[in-house]
Amino acid sequence: MPAVTVDDVLALPRLAALDVTAHGRPVQSITTAPSGFEGEGFPVRRAFAGVDLADLDPFIHMDQMGEVEYAPGEPKGTPWHPHRGFETVTYMLDGTFEHKDSHGGGGVISDGDTQWMTAGSGLLHIEAPPEEVVVNGGLFHGTQLWVNLPSRQKMADPRYQDIRGGEVRLLSSPDGGALLRVIAGEVGGHAGPGITHTPIALVHATLEPGAEVDVPWRQDFNALVYVLAGDGQVGAERRPVRKGQLAVLGAGDSIRVGATRRQEARSPQLEVMILGGLPIREPVAAYGPFVMNTRAELVQAFEDFQAGRLGVIPSEPHPGHVGLR
Fold first, then answer.
1. ∠299-303-306 over CA atoms, to 5°?
2. Strands, sheet with 138-148, edge to edge from the N-terminal-most edge strand
3. SS3 192
4. CA 222 to CA 206: how far, in whole Å?
């Protein structure tokens, strides 16, 4: 799980030690993500399954894609499908994914890169491994996060951000036991490159066995910690967590994450996504590829899709058919 690494963590800027008056966030719930398949058949863990949308707000959905080692000819992606009303944030830890859309946009993201797509008023897009990856196989592992948009921005023009791994803000914990990659938002005065409609913070952290870090967190943000790999503890009370589990945290101004001293050989470090944002607190009407505020808006989105108003598949698409997620 390389994503973005450094030779000397201690050479990075460090998070300041928290003030003694800081209030650590307690654990509100811990859930285990069920496994499933997405697109043309690649394995995923549904990170937010079973969690109330009010606790996730402003987020809607997150998949951990893989981790899977494909043989030659096995890599899979998604068919052409529409989106409207939210943003998708695809973060690649290992492997390569190619994106194309009905507006002529696209690009390739690989180890440590992020592709941030604001669907807004709507488009069609496809995500698939490039041809050379299909031919050769290889490791595939990433996440895709859905960030809601407030009603006033749901019909905004689509936009894209390709955030290269070298652009993320790298930080160290005070003792050097944790590496933090700030993709979006601000952590302890250190800002990541992602530009967001809805204020959020998104961090990928790697902790060495036995290490612990207290991450300062805005009091008006919610707070979630999802375990990508390894075993550890989370929250002020150090609740145990393991791969595929999500911790929803309560009120406070810091998030504590720690790694157990003994890790499995397959996961020698604790890897977590730490995320949160300013709740939108608006009604959510979501179905398949659309996230709107009302049922009538959902119906309109489907009608616009069926009428071709969200775009037309280019004449030379990737293999596949139009799908709904």
1. 140
2. 35-38, 42-46, 59-70, 138-148, 86-94, 114-118, 159-163
3. coil
4. 21
Amino acid letter at 1? M
Phi and psi at residue 95, to the nearest 5°? 100, -175
| Lookup: tokens for 95 | 């492997």
* Tokens describing residue 242: 């393991």
Contacts of 136 (CB under 8 A, 6+ apart): 72
The stretches of the chain forming alpha helices (DSSP H) are 53-56, 131-136, 295-306
What pLDDT digit, counting tens, does each position of 77-89 carry? 788 999 999 999 9
Q: CA-to-CA distance for 320 and 318, rounded, in angstroms?
A: 6
Q: Which residues pair with 157 in a beta bridge?
A: none
User: What residue type is assigned to position 59 of the chain?
Assistant: F
Mind listing the pLDDT tens digit for each residue in 179-228? 999 999 999 999 999 999 999 999 999 999 999 999 999 999 999 999 99
Helix/strand/coil percent split, the chain, to 5: 10, 45, 45
Domains of the chain as residue ranges with CATH: 9-306 (2.60.120.10)
pTM of the model: 0.92
Query: How far apart are the C-alpha atoms of 133 and 95, rounded to whole Å?
Result: 8
Q: Give every CB contact of residue 244 below 8 A, 6+ residues apart in sequence.
A: 32, 33, 45, 64, 227
Asked whether 63 and 45 are in contact (CB, 8 A), the reply is yes
Cα R_g (the chain), whole angstroms: 19
The owner of tokens 């006033």 is 152
Q: How far apart are CA 219 and CA 173, in angstroms?
A: 20
Partners of residue 139 on adjacent β-strands:
69
DSSP character at residue 152: G
